[in-house]
Design a protein that fits this description.
By secondary structure, the chain is mostly helical. It is built from 18 helices and no strands. Helix 10 packs across helix 11 and helix 11 packs antiparallel against helix 13. It starts with a helix and ends with a helix.
Length: 485
């Protein structure tokens, strides 16, 4: 027993020694202290603040562009009006081309539809640029979310001093409570901008599709007009219409032909012209206001100029004749603003263009009467009559018979006026005062008489295209000569 007790005691002592040894060793060699949590530094705060400021500025620019760009609803309304107007014009011009128009008409149609093609190409470019801009803006907004956005995992990683792989700046920013409101505001604003972009981008495809369809229609129309050009040129020396004395022509004119009624056709053409002007004016309220503003600016500038010119005349009386043009500032403002109408109203319907030309006629005559020699007043008056008839004929281009009779009236009037002017006593009296001017007027009257007579004869025998080409060239040259003088 005693032996067993000693053995048990020795075993217990040995076990106690073995248990205490590791503790003693750990006491002698303590474990290294845990690494302290990472603490923010001033440099990292400055870098984060700069990066946040840059992204806030970029987000602000995106918001400004979205706020200031033209609304999609306005684009849609203008596209619908353009589509309707172009559809009506397509139908009218196809009817004109089917009626074997003159070379001059074909060239005018070609220029008009080329301008339409350029306008549509510009609209398509703007729509595509807007779609690309939306893509770039959406990408930038997604980068904001990726850079500054954070989830629970990022918060936990940042609080433990670690950096999240997907949003490093977000994890660092959590260490700085002063940045938290700015980051939250940036993310909220970016989310609102993204919603706006997605909504607007979803409305673009129908507009792009409509513009592309219109572009294809314009391309086909331009190709058709190109084919009609050589055909019209080939008809110049052909009798493509019946002579003026033909009973067929007069039966149509006098409403006896069952298939044609000039009065009804004229009313229908007038209704179409008015409808085209109505469609064209839709959505152009801003353009009308801008044109009116230009008129007011020109009027003020011309009134101011008139006061300055009157002061100059006191110093140099030789300027008095040239300065007469500034004595009619209202007329000058009307003429100048209407001369700029082509830039405000591209591809205007014929009726609108004719009304604009007629509106400019009266003030232009008032100005020219102050500048021209009194012996040229009959020429000016004749030009006014010819211009008005030309505008009516321009509107009636879809009615070949009516346009032909108007042209015959113009040419007959031109022959009569040129013959009168050639033998006028005014011209003989002018020789004593201004021999050079009288000689020029006499030569001009001879040329005009010959051209008008040939154009009248060509139209009368049925060479309508040749007559129109000669007569229009003579009228345009006469108007240009008066303006240049």
């Amino acid at each position: 027993m005693l032996l067993l007790s000693r053995a048990f005691l020795a075993t217990a002592v040995a076990f106690a020694l073995l248990t205490a040894a590791p503790a003693a060793l750990r006491a002698q060699n303590p474990a290294p202290p845990a690494a302290p949590a990472a603490s923010p530094t001033p440099d990292s705060l400055s870098e984060l603040t700069d990066a946040l400021s840059q992204d806030e500025e970029k987000r602000g620019k995106i918001d400004a562009v979205l706020r200031d760009e033209e609304p999609i609803a306005a684009l849609k309304a203008r596209a619908e009006a353009l589509n309707k107007r172009m559809g009506d014009q397509l139908a009218a011009d196809r009817e004109t081309l089917a009626a074997n128009p003159s070379l001059e008409t074909v060239e005018a149609l070609g220029a008009s539809w080329r301008d339409r093609g350029e306008e549509l190409a510009g609209s398509l470019k703007c729509l595509r640029e807007r779609a690309d801009r939306y893509d770039a803006q959406s990408k930038d907004l997604a980068n904001f979310q990726k850079t500054w956005g954070q989830n629970a995992k990022d918060d936990k990683a940042a609080k433990n001093g670690a950096k999240a792989k997907d949003a490093p700046k977000a994890s660092e920013a959590v260490m700085y409570p002063e940045l938290t409101p700015r980051v939250a505001a940036l993310l909220k604003a970016a989310k609102g901008n993204e919603t706006t972009i997605q909504q607007r981008r979803g409305e673009l495809p129908p507009l792009l599709e409509s513009a592309q369809k219109q572009e294809r229609e314009v391309e086909r129309m331009v190709a058709t007009i190109k084919e009609a050009g050589p055909q019209a040129f080939g008809r110049l020396f052909l009798t493509e219409s019946v002579p003026i004395w033909s009973t067929t022509l007069w039966s149509k004119t006098l409403w006896r032909d069952s298939g044609f009624n000039l009065g009804a056709e004229s009313r229908a053409a007038w209704a179409k012209q008015c409808q085209a002007v109505g469609y064209y004016a839709q959505g152009m309220a801003d353009t009308f206001l801008l044109h009116g503003f230009l008129f007011v600016v020109l009027l003020c500038a011309l009134f101011w100029t008139r006061r300055r010119v009157r002061a100059w005349i006191g110093d140099d009386p030789s300027l008095s004749r040239a300065a007469q043009v500034f004595e009619t500032p209202v007329s000058m403002a009307i003429v100048f603003s209407l001369l700029a109408a082509q830039g405000f109203y591209p591809q205007a319907p014929p009726l609108l263009a004719a009304l604009g030309g007629a509106a400019a006629l009266i003030p232009a005559v008032l100005i020219l009467r102050r500048l021209l020699d009194r012996h040229l007043f009959p020429v000016l008056n004749a030009m006014v009559v010819f211009y008005l008839l030309d505008q009516v004929r321009r509107v009636a281009v879809a009615l070949p018979i009516a346009a032909r009779f108007l042209f015959l009236a113009e040419m007959a009037g031109g022959v009569a006026f040129a013959a009168w002017l050639f033998g006028s006593r005014r011209l003989r009296a002018l020789r004593e005062q201004n021999a050079r001017l009288a000689k020029g007027m006499r030569a001009g009257a001879q040329i005009a008489l010959a051209v008008f007579a040939v154009a009248l004869a060509a139209n009368a025998i049925g060479c309508v295209d040749l007559g129109n080409l000669l007569g229009n060239a003579a009228l345009q040259s006469a108007c240009l000569a008066v303006v240049l003088y």
